[in-house]
Amino acid sequence: MHICVVTETYAPEVNGVAMTLARLVTGLLNKNHRVSLIRPRQNKYDRPGCCNSPEVQLVPSMGIPGYPGLRMGFISKRQLIKDWNSDRPDVVYVATEGPLGHRTVAAAEKLKIPVISGFHTNFHSYTTHYRLGLFKSLTINYLRKFHNRTALTLAPNSTLAKELKQIGIHAVNIFSRGVDCELFNPDKRCHKIRRDWGANETDSVLLYVGRLAHEKNIQLAINAYREMLHKDNKLKFVIVGDGPLYSELQRCNPDIIFCGIHRGKSLARYYASADIFLFPSETETFGNVTLEAMASGLVVLAYDYAAARIHIRHKVNGYVSPLGDQQAYIKTAITLLEEKTKHASIRVQARQRAETIDWPEHINRFEDILMSAYK
Fold it and tell me: 349 with 334, same domain?
């Protein structure tokens, strides 16, 4: 089967959407499907062979304001129709709702090619964090119209699926995420990295991995760290990632260790070399980093929704707090630190849970969904 994947972002860009799509594409290729990929030009990521797919169509792009390194793609409906008339895909998967996805859906409608869409990013929630509340209803209207033009929308958890139905998106199915337990593994713990952080084996190291942007609520993790220092003044906080807030956060928090972007084996070593994972985001559709941290054997603290609600049992294999309650989150962080004697058991339980949600079964389910649309 010829599957065309359309996305504004793809590995080696570092975000949950890009890495999820790379997993899915690689899995489909390994199952002997033909996969073509349409994505924006990204300059530094446009080297031959960088996209894990033998067929990549790069389209003109422009930068997204406030997000250096991320770009929107543009292609005309006419061009897509011309391309697909000569080389027609059996099914199209549209991962992002930007201009590229919009034109793709229009071209597929014209040619009667089935389209499956993914809901990977809570854009309507971002409006609150950027003080654009007036645009929330417009964003929801756009998303509703966009997804209702596709045969099916895939949401990563049941709560989000219910929300999408409530805003008027008709055909919604649940498609969750896996985690690479071979890559993200407690065995990757590195004593040299910990020494570089100024931590010995008895010290506790907090870790955050993700984009440094307002919608990720990173300031809450920093506030929790400040309160936790009153209980343990040897505590270290390591932040891995980049984004529009990087320079400001680094300038205002000289005691926090900012490491920039890490990928692959390097990222896995950073995960495994920490002890506690703070994930304060309130806008995730899933939160892949939650599973990566659990697979790495960390004690995770996250809000009780998305991946954390599905996979974390409070005080058994991690900690959760009520969504949106910042004081409860900080209180839970302090409790977590006070209950250090439980951490060894929690780390083992987190790893065991992660081992039950590896990628192969999710790739099989994705294949079944695409094949059902084609039939």
Answer: yes
